[in-house]
Amino acid sequence: MKKVLGLIAVALLSAAPAMAQEVPQATAPAYNCDFAPSCEVAPGMYGKMGSPVTSKFNLSIGGFVKLDYAYNSVNFGRSGSLSPGTGVIPKAGSTNGKQEQSIFTARQSRLWFKVLGPALLGAKTSALIEADFYGDASAAAESPQVRMRQAWGSIDWSNTGVLFGQGYDIFGPMVANTIDFRQGAAYGTPNNPRVPQLRLTQKVDLDTANALKLIIGVQDPNQNANNNSVDSGGFGTSVNVAGQAMWVSKALGVAPGFYGLSMNSLSAGFFGLYGSQKTSTTLGDKSVDSWGYGFYTFVPILKSKDGKSRAMTMSLEAQAFMAANMAFNSATAGTYVGAATDPKPAKGYGVAGQVIFYPTQNLGVSAGYLRRNAYNYNDYRNINNFQEYTTNIFANVSYDLNAAIRVAAEYEYLNTHYGNSTIDTTSVQRSSLNSASGSGSANVARLALYYFF
Questions:
Q1: Is the dihedral of CA 326, 328, 329, 332 positive or negative?
Q2: Other Cβ atoms closer than 10 A to 20
Q3: CA distance linking residue 396 with residue 389, whole number of Å
Q4: Is 317 in a helix, a strand, or coil?
Q5: Is the pLDDT at 230 greater than 60, yes or no?
Q6: How far out from the chain centre does Cα 73 lie?
Q7: 452 burial level (CB within 10 Å; 0-12, 13-18, 19+)
Q8: CATH says 69-106+138-452 is which class?
Q9: Is 245 within 8 Å of 221 (Cβ atoms)?
Q10: Is 164 helix (H, G, I), strand (E, B) or coil?
Q11: How far apart are CA 5 and CA 11, in angstroms?
């Protein structure tokens, strides 16, 4: 046995020089070295893994890793790492209102693939698929489900574009610049859900500095089935028509927008949505309209010195809207009001405003006020614990350590005021609200670490 092992060792030693000549030495990865005192260090066993990405067309990959810590002064339930999309804040004195939460999660991490394809009739073509890991709040922490966020293809000429697939809702262009993954959707900025749609965008140049941006599209907020049923029935799926008409000007230069990742020009204009949905058989042969309209503006208060630098820039963004039967995107808290035999759309309005300030290139500060309100409280007189209004006051600070790593901290004050709140209800969703108090509030603190790639 010793002789055999010795022969094997000699053979391996003899072959070593030849093997070294045949296998090229791995090229060290080129790390981003724009930050002192040292370059990034490759992490552990993954540090030497690298291979080119190829596709039939030009393919790029991006996204971010995000670790969140959230402290809530009340218990939001299993999805407590972000503010409730329903707007339901547990009431003071309720079981959930007496409990606190302290949560870590990495499920908000994101991955996207973008393709630049062949030209078509003089137009550029592209596609995007984006996913995160927020598919199922009941899944174990180590096994969250992948969720499709966006999946669309586009055909773009110089002034005309066509997009088809799943993208952001055309209604409500403002996105709250929060660390909170909910981004104010239930508090005056109904920027979600991302919905299947077909949209046409047309740019009309007025002069060298001013243009009109017009968007018209059809979209289905419920996708394959109704996901906004109410206690006594629901509404069938229905494709809505939505649009925007914006004036865009270069007169004030540009300033940072959402997350400080985009540089935006002065914009102001209107947006709207209309649709009609048949009720379920439990309500009889009735239909309820869905509609909404609003105003949006983005103002660079302090412009970028060169169109790229964020240092000493400031922007103001604001939005106001009126809506009816638009719980699918959180523009209203409910779907319909009135008797089941004669339903009417639940109406509401929202206002929102925020300021984004970058004193330096890497340091960003944001603050905002968001509110969603029921339009006529008398319409809700037969609905227990209806949401009269919801508010969100937030402030956050972020700092980019280098081109990839960002740290951020945020404080939010959330408040929901309820009507008919002294009447108990057996609804599972509202079970934590049954107390004499007519409001619920929460103090929320967040910390986040990002790695953009």
A1: positive
A2: 10
A3: 23
A4: strand
A5: no
A6: 23
A7: middle
A8: mainly beta
A9: no
A10: strand
A11: 10
| Six-digit token string for 266 | 């002065």
In this structure, the number of other CB atoms found within 10 A of the CB of residue 211 comes to 18
Element (H, E) at 273: strand 263-278
Residue-wise pLDDT tens digits, 234-265: 455 578 899 999 999 999 999 999 999 899 99
Residue with tokens 């749609």: 197
Q: How far is CA 344 from the centre of its chain?
A: 30
Q: Which two tokens stand for residue 179?
A: 């660390």
How many Å apart are CA 443 and CA 73, to the nearest integer? 5
Q: Helix, strand or coil for residue 6?
A: helix
Percent of the chain as helix, strand, coil, to the nearest 5: 10, 50, 45
Give the domain ranges of the chain: 69-106+138-452
Whose CA is closest to 188, among 348, 304, 71?
348
In angstroms, the CA 233 to CA 306 distance is: 56
Cα angle for residues 158, 160, 164 (degrees, 5° grid): 125
At 228 the three-state DSSP class reads coil
Strands 287-302 and 160-168: unpaired
Kindly report the pTM of this predicted structure.
0.83
In percent, how much of the chain has pLDDT > 70? 77
User: What residues contact 363, with CB distance under 8 A and at least 6 apart?
Assistant: 397, 398, 399
| Residue 388 near residue 418 (C-beta atoms within 8 A) | yes
Task: Give the pLDDT score at 79.
Answer: 82
What tokens appear for 311 in the block? 């240092």
User: What whole-number distance in Å separates Cα of residue 130 and Cα of residue 414?
Assistant: 29
Q: What SS3 class is residue 8?
A: helix
As a whole number, the mean pLDDT across the chain is 82
- Dist. CA 219–CA 221, nearest whole Å: 6
Which DSSP symbol is given to 5? H
For residue 50, give Cα distances in angstroms to 41, 53, 267.
15, 10, 42
Phi, psi of 21, deg, nearest 5: -75, -35
The residue count of the chain comes to: 453
3-state secondary structure of 22: helix
Angle at 375 between CA 236 and CA 82, to 5 degrees: 70
User: Quick one: tokens of 247?
Assistant: 């004036």
Closest C-alpha among 121, 120, 77 to residue 95: 77
Mean pLDDT, residues 93-103: 90
Residue written as token pair 């003071």: 92
